[in-house]
Design goal:
This protein is α+β, with helices and mostly antiparallel strands. It has three helices and three strands, in the order H-H-H-E-E-E. A three-stranded antiparallel sheet has the order 1-2-3, covered by helices on one side. It is elongated, with a radius of gyration of 20 Å. The mean pLDDT is about 85.
Length: about 130
């Protein structure tokens, strides 16, 4: 019983760490896919909106909570761009972990890491 009392919390901690790591890895790969898709679409489309980019990237279907998702694109939608100009897409997601590690230490702090990704593309069309 003493061994179980020592090992069960350790095994549970390792299990939750693996689950959290898997969630963050999934979000990282998802954000990479979203930023690449958005940059590709913006590079071949002359006029687009912020919502159109979010819809085309599939963020609504891929992310658990779209309200925590931020998409920043340069140049901004509707801005002047020429063939060969650089399009930069930055995405971020405010991840809320399943278990707050600071809560285990009786702290009122919350832990919410921000997962980020970015992509750069060359514009293939101009906006006149």
């Amino acid at each position: 019983m003493v061994e179980s009392a020592i090992l069960i919390p350790i095994l549970l901690s390792v299990t939750f760490f693996i689950v959290e790591f898997g969630n963050v890895l999934y979000l990282t790969n998802t954000l990479n896919q979203i930023s690449r898709t958005t940059a590709r679409y913006a590079s071949v489309t002359s006029v687009y909106t912020q919502q159109e980019l979010i819809d085309v990237s599939g963020a609504s279907e891929l992310l658990p909570d779209v309200s925590k998702f931020v998409l920043i694109i340069t140049p901004a939608p509707g801005a002047q761009k020429n063939v060969g100009s650089t399009i930069t897409v930055q995405v971020q997601y405010n991840y809320t972990p399943i278990i707050n590690p600071f809560g285990l230490l009786n702290s009122n702090q919350s832990w919410s890491p921000v997962v980020r990704s970015s992509s750069i593309a060359r514009s293939e069309v101009s906006h006149v």
